[in-house]
Structure formats: structure tokens, C-alpha cells
Sequence to fold (99 residues):
Amino acid sequence: MLPEKVNIFGIEYTIRQDKDEYLGANSLLGEILYSEQEIYIKSTLSADRKIKVLVHEVSHGILFEVGAIKGAGDESIIHLLGICLHQFIKNNDFEWVKR
Ligand SMILES: [Zn+2]
Fold:
């Protein structure tokens, strides 16, 4: 199950799964809207795919929020970053970072 919100460097993005018509019309599984601080995820995806798509969209957001605007719009970079982040997050417990 996806969270309702994610915090990307102090900016709160709302996760929305009620934009299937918009996403379908644009052949997208997800999208991040920086100015609206929203991330759309297609509601009909499997639970695993929703997580992967969310991490992909968050990857766009990470680069955008640190000012790497060119990288934030580069799908080849974001694709790789998304896969790496997803695996890194999935395979580790992060309590040690928060201590
Ligand atoms: Zn993308």
C-alpha cells in the first residue's frame, strides 16, 4: 500500500490514485507535478508496480528539489536511479540512519 504523502527534501508531495483517465490519455503509469506537489500513480497497477512507479517519480522529485533540473527531466538517468533506489530501499533497514 502506498503512503498518502512523501517528503522530498522538505517538500510534501501528495500521492494520488484518482488520475487514471489523465495518465491513460498520456500513456503514463505515473507522473510527478512539481508545482502542484502531487504524484499520480495509476490505480490499476499491481501493488509491486505501484511501488516501483512511485520510486521512479520520487527520483524525478529528488533531482528537481536539489536543483538538478536537467537530470530531473532525463528519463534515462531517472530510470536507472529509480531502479537503484528501489532495490537499495527494499534491501535495507534504515533505522541506523535515524539514530
Ligand atoms: Zn519518468
Observations:
- Strands lie at 5-8, 11-16, 30-33, 38-41.
- The two ends are 26 Å apart (CA to CA).
- DSSP finds five helices and four strands in the chain.
